[in-house]
Amino acid sequence: RKEVEQDPGPFNVPEGATVAFNCTYSNSASQSFFWYRQDCRKEPKLLMSVYSSGNEDGRFTAQLNRASQYISLLIRDSKLSDSATYLCVVNDPSGGYQKVTFGTGTKLQVIP
Amino acid sequence: GAGVSQTPSNKVTEKGKYVELRCDPISGHTALYWYRQSLGQGPEFLIYFQGTGAADDSGLPNDRFFAVRPEGSVSTLKIQRTERGDSAVYLCASSDRSGGTEQFFGPGTRLTVL
């Protein structure tokens, strides 16, 4: 089983739609979780951290389910500018530092 | 302020040649990471520096790959006897402490081995 698994998509959604991505992780000892966004041929950038209680940032909501070992990202009222690849990132507890593992990414295309 | 910079942005080389890829982290960031990203994949960890020392090089695929960070700032990733399978985007990231939450990425170096 891969350490971090994501559906690669693509998810094609119309503007204004709500879309959700899930990501599963294999190491139950992982403590830190993140969503990064990567535009085509650009570098990844932090979108948001994922906290145990769930957190929201504008149209974006991230949630963590430790029992099932998955995290999710919900995007409401999708904009054309949301089109990108969303990378699920989970810390690797075997590292004594912030070593993380990236998923393969889920591609989102918002259509006019 | 200035972000992470990487040079060159593109590198085309022939199989068997030696290449060096450079990373300038954000000033003051003590942690530096190198990743490799192939098409359709997420970044794959190669090596991590805390200061001048390589704290974790477990991601380097073989002994043709080596990285240094002699003064705790700029880092160079060195690849000897390049192979076609080394073609990828090499990303560098830095963070402000070893437990830093956010990694700031450079634009990457696209390496093509012919």
SSE ordering of chain A: EEEEEEEEEEE
| Biggest β-sheet strands, sense, barrel of chain A | 6 strands, mixed
Number of helices of chain A: 0
**Mean pLDDT of chain B, as a whole number?**
94
Are there runs of chain A of 5+ residues with pLDDT below 50, and where?
none
Please provide the count of β strands of chain B. 11
Shape of chain B: globular
Query: What structural class do helix, strand and pairing data of chain B support?
Result: mainly beta
Name the shape of chain A in a single word.
Answer: globular
Taking the alpha carbons of the first and last residues of chain A, their distance comes to 37 Å
- DSSP helical segment count of chain B: 0
- As a percent range, the share of strand residues of chain B is over 45%
How much β-strand is present in the residues of chain A? over 45%
Q: How are helices and strands ordered from N to C of chain B?
A: EEEEEEEEEEE
Radius of gyration of chain B from CA coordinates: 13 Å
Oligomer type? heterodimer
Mean pLDDT score of chain A = 94
Helix content estimate of chain B: under 10%
Distance between the termini of chain B: 37 Å
Which two chains share the most extensive interface?
A-B, 22 and 24 residues
